[in-house]
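Structure in, sequence out. Go:
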C-alpha cells in the first residue's frame, strides 16, 4: 500500500454474501461485539475497501458491516450496529494465527481461501502504519494527521489482547493505534477531545499523531487513532489492585490522579464551549435519572427496597435547581475509571480513551455535562477496587476518595465535596447503572454496587 499513496478501491461483487455465513457465527463471539445474547439475522455492507488484492499470498479487505439483530422486548427498532473489520485472506492459516480464524470461504471472490481477523497478523498491521505515515487515500479510507511527530518505519506491531470494546496495536514502544470496532458517523470524541486538549497545551492526554476515517455520506466515520505509547506505564486499575494486595497505601496516587483529572477538565473548559445549567436544563437531566432508577428497580428486585431512598438524591438536586441554583456544564471524559488512567514510570498520570460510554448515542456523548460526573465515576472505581479483595477494604476506598477530591481541588478545580447534592446524584445514578450491569453480566459482583446503594440511599451515610 505504501507504493500508491492515493488509489481507488476495487471490491469484487459477491464479497459480503460469501462471508456472511461465517461472520454471522464469528461476530457474536468477539469480546467487542455489543449485541450479546441476540442472534445476528443478517448483514449489510456500509463500506468495502480492498487494501491488498487477494490474488497473492495475502489478501486484505477493510469492511464496515452493519449487523442486524432482533430488538429486545420493548426496545425501539434499531437499524443495527456498524462494525469495523479488517479481513485477511490466505490459502492456509499459520498455527500462530489460529486464534484469529473466521472460517473457510466456500464461494465468491475468496472461494477456497481462509479468512481471519487480520489485526493478529504482523504484515497487515504494518500496512496500516505505512498508510498513516504516507497519509494514504484508498477508496473511502483517509489516513490523516497533523502532528509534527514523525512516524518511523520498521516498528514491530503487536496486538493488545486485553481490551474489550475496541482493538489496539502497539508499534514498537513508540505508538499505539486504537481501532474502534463499533463505529458511528460523526465527530468521535476519542479524536475530538485529545486534539482539543493538545491545542490547549494539556500534556495529560497523549496527542493524536494520525487517524483513520471513512469518507462516507452523509457524515464521515472515525475508525482509528494513533497516539504516542506511554512506555512502561501502569494501568490505574491494575496498580490499585496491586497496592491493595500488598496492603499499601494508595492515597498519594489518588491525590495525584485527582490533580490530573482537574487539569484535563480545566483544559477542556478552556478549549470548548461551556453552558449554564439552570432549572429548565436540570429538569430533563433529573427526569432521566429517575427513569433509569425506575427501570433498574423493575429489572433487579434486590434494588427495590432502596429505591425510595435513592430517589431522594435526585429530588434534592431538583429542589436546588428549583430554588435558582445553577451549574456549569462542559465537555468531560464521559467514562472515567481507574482503567482509563495510566501512570508513567516517572509517576505522572495520563487519561486515555475519551470515547465515552460506547452504548450511548454519539450526540449524548458529546453533550456538555457537569464535570462532577467524571468525579463520581472515579469515586465508584475506587469503591470497586476496594471490593475486589477479600475481605473488602472500605476504609481504603474512603481514604482514596477523599484524597482524590483533595487533589482535584489543589489543581484548581472546585472541591467536589462542596456540592454534595450534585455529587450524590451523579454517584447514585452511576451505582444504579452498575446494579443493572452486574445483575445481567456478573451476578457475583452485584454486592459491590449494592453496598454503595445502601450508603447512597441514606443521606446521613454519604
Amino acid at each position: 500500500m505504501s507504493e500508491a499513496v492515493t488509489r481507488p478501491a476495487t471490491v469484487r461483487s459477491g464479497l459480503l454474501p460469501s462471508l456472511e455465513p461465517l461472520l454471522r457465527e464469528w461476530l457474536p463471539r468477539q469480546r467487542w461485539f455489543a449485541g450479546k445474547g441476540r442472534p445476528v439475522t443478517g448483514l449489510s455492507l456500509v463500506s468495502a475497501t480492498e487494501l491488498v488484492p487477494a490474488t497473492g499470498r495475502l489478501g486484505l479487505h477493510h469492511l464496515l458491516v452493519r449487523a442486524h439483530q432482533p430488538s429486545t422486548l420493548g426496545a425501539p427498532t434499531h437499524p443495527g450496529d456498524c462494525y469495523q473489520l479488517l479481513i485477511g485472506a490466505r490459502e492456509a492459516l499459520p498455527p500462530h494465527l489460529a486464534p484469529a480464524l473466521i472460517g473457510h470461504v466456500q464461494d465468491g471472490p475468496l472461494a477456497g481461501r481462509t479468512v481471519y481477523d487480520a489485526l493478529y497478523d504482523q504484515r497487515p498491521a504494518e500496512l496500516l502504519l505505512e498508510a498513516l505515515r504516507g497519509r494514504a487515500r484508498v477508496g473511502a479510507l483517509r489516513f490523516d494527521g497533523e502532528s509534527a511527530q514523525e512516524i518511523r518505519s520498521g516498528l514491530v506491531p503487536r496486538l493488545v489482547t486485553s481490551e474489550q470494546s475496541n482493538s489496539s496495536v502497539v508499534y514498537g514502544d513508540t505508538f499505539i493505534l486504537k481501532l474502534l470496532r463499533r463505529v458511528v458517523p460523526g465527530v468521535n470524541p476519542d479524536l475530538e477531545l485529545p486534539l482539543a486538549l493538545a491545542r490547549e497545551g494539556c500534556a495529560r492526554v497523549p496527542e493524536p499523531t494520525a487517524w483513520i476515517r471513512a469518507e462516507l455520506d452523509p457524515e464521515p466515520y472515525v475508525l482509528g487513532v494513533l497516539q504516542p505509547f506511554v512506555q512502561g506505564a501502569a494501568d490505574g486499575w491494575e496498580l490499585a489492585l496491586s497496592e491493595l494486595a500488598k496492603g499499601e497505601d494508595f492515597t498519594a496516587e489518588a491525590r495525584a490522579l485527582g490533580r490530573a483529572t482537574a487539569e484535563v477538565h480545566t483544559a477542556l473548559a478552556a478549549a470548548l464551549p461551556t453552558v449554564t445549567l439552570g432549572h429548565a436544563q436540570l429538569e430533563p437531566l433529573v427526569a432521566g435519572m429517575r427513569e433509569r432508577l425506575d427501570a433498574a428497580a423493575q429489572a433487579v428486585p434486590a434494588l427495590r427496597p432502596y429505591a425510595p431512598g435513592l430517589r431522594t438524591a435526585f429530588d434534592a438536586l431538583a429542589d436546588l435547581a428549583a430554588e435558582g441554583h445553577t451549574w456549569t456544564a462542559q465537555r468531560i471524559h464521559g467514562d472515567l475509571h481507574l482503567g482509563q488512567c495510566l501512570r508513567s514510570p516517572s509517576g505522572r498520570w495520563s487519561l486515555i480513551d475519551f470515547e465515552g460510554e460506547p452504548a450511548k448515542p454519539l450526540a449524548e456523548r458529546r453533550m456538555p455535562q457537569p464535570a462532577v460526573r467524571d468525579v463520581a465515576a472515579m469515586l465508584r472505581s475506587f469503591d470497586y477496587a476496594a471490593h475486589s479483595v477479600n475481605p473488602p477494604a472500605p476504609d481504603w476506598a474512603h481514604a482514596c476518595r477523599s484524597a482524590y477530591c483533595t487533589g482535584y481541588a489543589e489543581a484548581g478545580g472546585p472541591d467536589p465535596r462542596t456540592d454534595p447534592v450534585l455529587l450524590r446524584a451523579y454517584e447514585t445514578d452511576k451505582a444504579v447503572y452498575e446494579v443493572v450491569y452486574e445483575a445481567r453480566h456478573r451476578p457475583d459482583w452485584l454486592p459491590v454496587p449494592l453496598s454503595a446503594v445502601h450508603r447512597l440511599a441514606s443521606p446521613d451515610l454519604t
